[in-house]
Write a structure and sequence with these properties.
Elements: H1 24-27, E1 42-44, E2 50-52, E3 75-87, E4 90-101, H2 107-110, E5 112-117, E6 123-133, E7 136-139, E8 147-150, E9 159-160, E10 164-169, E11 178-186, E12 197-201, E13 208-219, E14 225-228, E15 233-240, E16 243-253, E17 271-275, H3 280-294, H4 299-310, H5 315-329, E18 331-332, E19 334-335, H6 347-353, E20 355-356, H7 358-371, E21 375-381, E22 401-408, E23 411-415, E24 436-439, E25 451-452, E26 460-469, E27 478-486, H8 487-499, H9 502-516, E28 520-522, E29 527-531, E30 536-545, E31 556-562, H10 564-570, E32 582-583, E33 588-597, E34 609-614, E35 618-627, E36 630-639, E37 643-644, H11 649-659, E38 664-670, H12 674-693, H13 701-717, H14 724-740, H15 744-757, H16 762-774, H17 778-791, H18 797-808, H19 812-823, H20 826-831, H21 833-845, H22 866-872, H23 878-884, E39 886-887, E40 890-891, H24 893-910, H25 913-925, H26 932-946
Helix pairs in contact: 4-7, 5-7, 6-7, 12-13, 13-14, 14-15, 14-16, 15-16, 16-17, 16-18, 17-18, 18-19, 19-21, 21-22, 21-24, 22-23, 24-25, 24-26, 25-26
Length: about 950
């Protein structure tokens, strides 16, 4: 069916691994494509094996009134009718399909009819092809318009099976059309020796199916088992005139949802299987016959065996030499035409052509081992279904790959001749995780049942050592990573390195680290090392961690680290609910250590800390310990369950989310050494005492905070644990504190130094703009505000500074424009400050009528300075506004500073200069030097005095 076709031949496909997303294209067991085999899509004239003829008489029409109506998409299959006749003359498969185009989106795919067949043993005959539209039958069966494509869809995987596709693209297809076609395939693959086997998907990943039916006619004397994957199949059977008729139906099958990382076994409920093999032993004997048939002695084989024997060594070493030869000196390429889908080629043929697929390579390996007096047998496995093949009928079609069981020195090993990038001692080269296999050996007890193959549980997959080195706090830390891959993962990396530029592999690994360390910069080339005695490969990488440290409250440094390999193993493609099971991380052990090293004592005394948790999915152990100058963290993830069922999805997610915080950690460092911290504590106590005694004048709480800020920032600036960016931030903070205390020269020096240390420090330009306004440096205000807005376009603070500065300089039109721009933001309307300047600017320009319309806060109880706005708008008296300034029984100096400034400005606009001076002086008398209104009042008084 569309999008879900079984793979009956014995083929070796690369396993989809958590790590292999990058390397999969290069993996495929080290295969390379050759020009002589590179044609992928070749249109040919209609083959002589294709004909047009009437429907076979034994094939029955399925009445359309029995077809249900299901849930459809852009197109759907109303009927998928399959009828097969098996007798002494062979096999004939009749197929009749009806497709309905439901929406315009279905026109492209729905108008294409494609039939795959193998011309080596099958002949294709079309019977009907037409469109039903508004009750009219439009014929479309035109031989001249049927083309045969030789596409070889598996050529990139180094597979050539000779299958053809008869294709017909229908013209003039419209929404609502019903497309019908039928055809027959005559012939059977001779490799199955006149025994019937079939697998068919009763579902489709491209369209829903209203009715799926499979009808099998076979002599009563032939025992053909039938197995449907799901419980929604209907199976009936009866015998008439010596012929058994078995009918399987499935109704209203929705389009199959294809989810990322779904194991093949999840789709077994959609599979219908037929097999004339009685049990697994029957399949084993059939396979053994094929392999024995290929085992023919030859001079070429003798030469290679003698070469290995001449090298001497133990049986283990000789077996390893034979395996190395088959894996590396015989390239992978499968010519699986006709019966050679399963029949191995003789070793002499493989040696002459120096290529072969899995069955050819295994046959060669076994022949060499037998000549070396080492026991070996072929083993059929499924790279798709693995241990789920015991849920299938005994059939050759349950398998798609062949390995070898080798008995040497009392040890039983399971070896794969297609793994061209495998290295190391023989004992460590058994395949892992295939679940179950069938040994093709006569008389062996294991040949009558499926054998259990070695498990991958508790096998080490990855071991990583990370060192985060802090040489100097003023510079970016360095990260050194040494990652060792074992077994399959090592082979995948070798394949990637052999078939891709080394820097591509480096970029892939760097991408994994960049998720945990966003400011990652490569420092030097990736180093690759191997241990020739083990199937291991190591990568060495060095990075700089730009902007690694965070400075959240200007009191401490915070940096995060992560167990990158553990995180990658558990990273999910999506956390959305699953319909099908998911193939999660490869089973096995993932280890990672992170060591953080500092140039001076950082930590106090602390004991080791260990976290452990275990579930049916995986176990996690994290151990942490440290010294005064280092922190050591070790994480170990042991994945025990590779496939998570859909019903377990919530439980699996819950454990991942529960354990995720332990997949790394945070470093929190004080910016001050203990002696510096003690000095700051004493200086703070002294300041508090001086303030209490009145020796240090503090008019407001903010001014008190400013004094403390100057102390703390000065202490931190004397520390060596801050980089230039953080020093600039502290200088900007200290400058603001100086500014709030009226210490303008000290503030200007801090802002200037901050801009030199970090030209991107927004706070430095904001402070410099305030300083320029406070010191009547008008042009400099514009420059500093422009730079602040360039760095932070959405920041409103520089816009307020510019608005106040424009008003202070008598640039009322510009101040009015600034206020209007700010009031476009509803939040600024609620704050009321921009409305105050809008009103004053409009009064200065002589047109304040209605200027505040639409600019009053919308809340039921607006905050201060709303009473000031009401006062300016003549809605309340000054006395009322003064009462509104009272907090906790006392008038707030800050609120009075603002109120008296605006009252003075209003009186000045009303022409009462004396009253204006009175209020402006009251504003200055509050000593709230940190408020802009304080500075504006002083400037206004200076201008009045200068008149």
């Amino acid at each position: 069916m569309g999008g879900m076709s079984p793979k009956p031949a014995w083929r070796s496909y690369g396993r989809v691994l958590a790590f292999a997303a990058y390397a999969f294209a290069a993996l495929v067991h080290g295969r390379t494509c050759h020009a002589a085999e590179a044609t992928q899509s070749k249109a040919e004239s209609v083959a002589s094996g294709i004909s047009v003829e009437g429907r076979p008489k034994w094939a029955l029409e399925v009445p359309l009134d029995t077809v249900p109506s299901g849930v459809h998409g852009a197109q759907h299959i109303a009927l998928s009718d399959h009828q097969t006749r098996v007798d002494r003359d062979g096999e004939v498969r009749y197929v009749h399909k009806i497709r309905v185009i439901d929406e315009a989106a279905g026109l492209v795919a729905g108008s294409q009819i494609q039939v795959d067949f193998d011309p080596q043993y099958q002949k294709l005959a079309f019977h009907t092809m037409f469109i039903v539209r508004e009750g009219r039958r439009l014929e479309r069966l035109d031989r001249k318009k049927i083309v045969v494509l030789h596409r070889e869809p598996h050529l990139e995987a180094q597979m050539y099976d000779g299958r053809m596709t008869a294709s017909r693209v229908l013209e003039d297809v419209r929404v609502g059309d019903r497309i019908e076609w039928s055809y027959s395939l005559r012939g059977a693959n001779p490799v199955f020796q006149n025994r019937f086997v079939e697998v068919d998907w009763a579902a489709s990943s491209t369209e829903a199916i209203d009715l799926y039916q499979y009808r099998l006619l076979a002599p009563e004397t032939r025992t053909i088992a039938c197995k449907a994957g799901g419980d929604d199949f209907e199976i009936t059977s009866h015998v008439q005139a010596g012929v058994r008729e078995t009918i399987v139906r499935r109704r209203d099958t929705r389009q199959t949802t294809i989810e990322v990382n779904t194991p093949a076994r999840a789709y077994l409920p959609d599979l219908l299987s037929w097999s004339e093999f009685t049990d697994w032993g029957d399949v084993a004997r059939w396979a053994q016959n094929l392999f024995e048939k290929a085992q023919v002695a030859s001079p070429e084989l003798a030469v290679e065996v003698e070469r290995i024997r001449a090298q001497g060594g133990s049986p283990d070493e000789q077996a390893r030499h034979a395996l190395d030869f088959v894996q590396t000196q015989v390239r992978y390429f499968g010519t699986e035409i006709g019966e050679y889908s399963h029949q191995p080629a003789p070793p002499s043929h493989v040696l002459q052509q120096r290529y072969g697929d899995c069955k050819d390579k295994v046959t060669l390996l076994i022949a060499m081992l037998h000549a070396l007096k080492i026991g070996a047998e072929p083993v059929l496995v499924s790279t798709y279904y693995r241990d789920a093949i015991d849920r299938m009928l005994p059939s050759p079609l349950a398998f798609n790959h062949v390995i070898a069981r080798v008995d040497v020195n009392g040890k039983q090993l399971w070896l794969d001749g297609t793994r061209a990038y495998q290295t190391g001692a023989l004992e460590g080269r058994s395949v892992l995780g295939y679940g179950k296999g069938l040994v093709a050996a006569s008389g062996a007890a294991s040949a009558t049942a499926l054998a259990d193959l070695p498990s991958a549980e508790h096998e080490t997959r990855v071991s990583a050592e990370l060192v985060l080195r802090v040489e100097n706090f003023a510079e970016d830390p360095e990260l050194e990573a040494h990652i060792t891959y074992f077994g399959e993962l090592a082979e995948i990396v070798r394949s990637a390195l052999a078939n891709r530029p080394v820097d591509e592999m480096g970029k892939h690994v760097t991408g994994e680290f960049a998720r945990a360390y966003p400011g990652l910069l490569e420092s030097g080339d990736m180093e690759v090392t191997e241990d020739p005695q083990r199937n291991e490969l190591s990568l060495g990488l060095r990075y700089q961690l730009k902007d690694y440290w965070k400075y959240p409250d200007q009191q401490k440094l915070v940096g995060n680290f992560s167990f990158v390999q553990l995180v990658e193993a558990l990273r999910l493609p999506t956390e959305a609910p699953r319909i099908h099971a998911i193939q999660a991380a490869l089973p096995g052990v993932y280890r990672e250590t992170v060591s953080v090293v500092f140039p001076e004592d950082i930590f106090g005394k602390s004991g080791p800390n260990t976290f452990k948790e275990q579930s049916k999915f995986f176990s996690l152990r994290v151990h942490q310990e440290g010294t005064a100058r280092s922190l050591y963290s070790q994480g170990e993830l042991d994945v025990s369950k590779e496939i998570v069922e859909a019903s377990e999805w919530g439980e699996y997610l819950a454990q991942i989310n529960r354990d995720w915080p332990h997949m790394g950690g945070s470093l929190t460092l004080a910016t001050l050494r203990p002696d510096q911290l003690e000095k700051l504590k004493k200086d703070t106590e002294t300041l508090s005492e001086q303030t209490r005694k009145g020796q240090v004048k503090v008019a407001t709480l903010m001014q008190g905070k400013a004094r403390l800020t100057i102390l703390s920032t000065s202490a931190q600036l004397a520390s060596v644990r801050l980089n230039s960016k953080f020093r600039a931030l502290l200088l900007a903070q200290r400058g603001i504190a100086h500014e709030n205390l009226g210490e303008f020269a000290a503030a200007a020096a801090d802002f200037a130094e901050a801009k030199v240390l970090d030209p991107g420090c927004v706070d430095a330009y904001l402070g410099a703009a305030l300083n320029a306004m406070d010191t009547n440096a008008g042009q400099r205000v514009d420059e500093e505000v422009a730079k602040a807005l360039e760095l932070a376009p959405s920041n409103v603070a520089p816009r307020y500074t510019r608005m106040y500065a424009h008003y202070d300089r008598g640039m009322y039109r510009e101040a009015q424009d600034d206020a209007r721009e700010l009031l476009e933001n509803p939040d600024e309307v609620e704050r009321s400050y921009a409305a105050l300047l809008l009103y004053l600017s409009a009064r200065r320009l002589g047109d304040a009528d209605g200027v505040l319309s639409g600019h009053f806060p919308s809340g039921s109880a607006p905050d201060w300075p709303y009473p000031v706005l009401e006062f300016l708008a003549n809605k309340i008296t000054l006395e009322k506004a003064i009462k509104e300034s009272i907090d906790s029984g006392h008038a707030s100096p800050e609120k009075l500073c603002e109120l008296y400034y605006y009252a003075g400005e209003r009186e000045l606009l009303n022409g009462d200069t004396d009253k204006a001076k009175e209020y402006l002086r009251k504003s200055v008398a509050t000593s709230v030097s940190e408020y802009r209104e304080f500075i504006l009042a002083k400037h206004e008084l200076d201008r009045i005095s200068a008149r």
